[in-house]
Structure prediction request, 369 residues.
Amino acid sequence: MKVAIVHELLTMRGGAERLTKVVADMFPEAPVYTLLYNEKKLGDWFPRERVRTSRLQKFAKFSTNHHLYLRRFSKAVEAWNFDEYDLVISFSSAFAHGIKTNGKTKHLCYVNSPARYLWDRTFDVQNRAGWLQKKYLERTFHKLREWDSEAGERPDKILAASKEIKRRVELYWRRESEVLYPCIDDCWLDQSHVETCESASPNQTTNKTYYALASTLVPYKRIELAIEACNKLGKTLKIAGEGPHKKSLMKIAGPTIEFLGYIDQKNLVSLLQRARAFIFPGYEDFGIAPIEAMSCGTPVIAFGKGGALETVRAGETGKFFDEPSAESLASTITDFESKNYDADACRKQAERFSREKFEAGIRHIIKNM
Prediction:
């Protein structure tokens, strides 16, 4: 079977790129098609000789602002010819689902989410823009929504990253899809990691002194809720990660809030396994970070909507807060501290999202196609 893989933008490291790498490792002979490629950032995951870029790649050296190419992305993915392949596996967050295949070539599309800025976050994006940019985005988004609805009919089979994404696929594209959860890296579940966490992270959570958060520091992650809640309660919160929202967050942080910047996986494991709980305040499509925290035996306090509802088990591996406010989160933290959470139960829950199970799911689906 001759296979090709499509990922929209290989310009940064993230959960979507990591998942694409898992499938690329499953099919080592498959070329990887992408609209734009940054070899400096992703060359070790996706070597240059394996990558097929779009005609837009020649413009990438002039600007890293991908919004400049929005109107061109749909035409660029349609320009690729996959006639020589038996199967194309695409990973879509906006455009990859719109590739065109003939009747012979099968198209399996893994949807991280239908484009949020075209649908449920359209007004949020437009309201942050200036007057002239807003007019441009209104026209552009309207045209792209029409294209997006049509392109949603093209894949032969659609996989959704969560039940939340499955709901959006049905709402915006009128398509049925099957849920296949993303996986965490093997290193979070290997035996040496578990033994390290067991020795450093006893079942008792009540003797731990700080809360942890690891995230890209951007507005939609709603990290300010965690900061304001911990300010109010006088709790220590250690924040790992970098991002454009960092300065704004530092301005509202009290003396118990620590910004650690980017930390590598070894230090992240140490941070998580010694935390009383991992705080996950955003409304996420799925969210891999809570699973990584649970693999360390650490329970999670999460906003009770979106993907967290599918990964965290209330009362067993964490607790949810109901309203997107610092007051609701602070109240939940107080309630959380009245109960002890079992580290083994957290680790067992994380095992549901292993790479082995994800790969088995992909093979089973391809076989049935």
